[in-house]
Amino acid sequence: MSEEVEKPGRDAAVSLREIKRETLRPFLRMKVAESQERMVANNAVSIAQAHFEPKAWFRGIYADETPVGFIMLYDDPEEPVYFLWRLMVADEFQGMGYGRKAIAQLVEYVKTRPNATELKVSHVPELPGNPGPFYQKLGFEYTGEEDDGELVMRLKL
């Protein structure tokens, strides 16, 4: 008989951890809500892209010891602008503050990088439930730029 695993609560400690062979499987199984599938690539695609892009920095998002999401940064120390390439929180863990806490940790990481002056992100504006308002609550502002049909936002560091 398998034990029922208790899900972490809103007060869980959120951490960003390297994804290794031994920890990969739960990240490959994660899904966002069906309505969000067009907004973010699945983690298998993101992890594959990261392995072929030397400037990709990616981590698993954990709430206590439970894998709850994925985050990826375009990390180019030659440039002052860093780019939040992917953020996904699994459907069953959304609304718990994990994404907000993960972004806060990412911002602290980017502040330690050479020349960092801002963190950018982009999103498709037409899709219902797009993450624009979420990013605005975290201090990101629209730049007026568009990248491949996505609106670009920035957080000055």
Question: What is the fold's blueprint, element by element?
Answer:
Blueprint: E1 14-17, H1 24-29, H2 43-52, E2 56-63, E3 66-74, E4 81-89, H3 98-111, E5 118-123, H4 132-137, E6 141-147, E7 150-156
Parallel strand pairs: 4-5
Antiparallel strand pairs: 1-2, 2-3, 3-4, 5-7, 6-7
The CATH C-level class name: Alpha Beta
Name given to the CATH architecture: 3-Layer(aba) Sandwich
Q: What is CATH's topology name?
A: Aminopeptidase
Number of helices: 4
How far is it from the N-terminal to the C-terminal residue, by CA? 50 Å
**Any idea how many domains?**
1
Q: Which percent range fits the helix content?
A: 10-25%
Strand proportion: 25-35%
Low-confidence sequence ranges: none
Largest sheet geometry = 7 strands, mixed
Q: Give the integer mean of the pLDDT values.
A: 94
CATH homology-level superfamily: Gcn5-related N-acetyltransferase (GNAT)
Strand order of the main beta sheet, please? Answer: 1-2-3-4-5-7-6
Principal-axis shape: globular
Query: What is the string of SSEs from the N terminus onward?
Result: EHHEEEHEHEE
Structural class: alpha+beta
- Give the number of DSSP strands: 7
Evaluate the radius of gyration. Answer: 15 Å
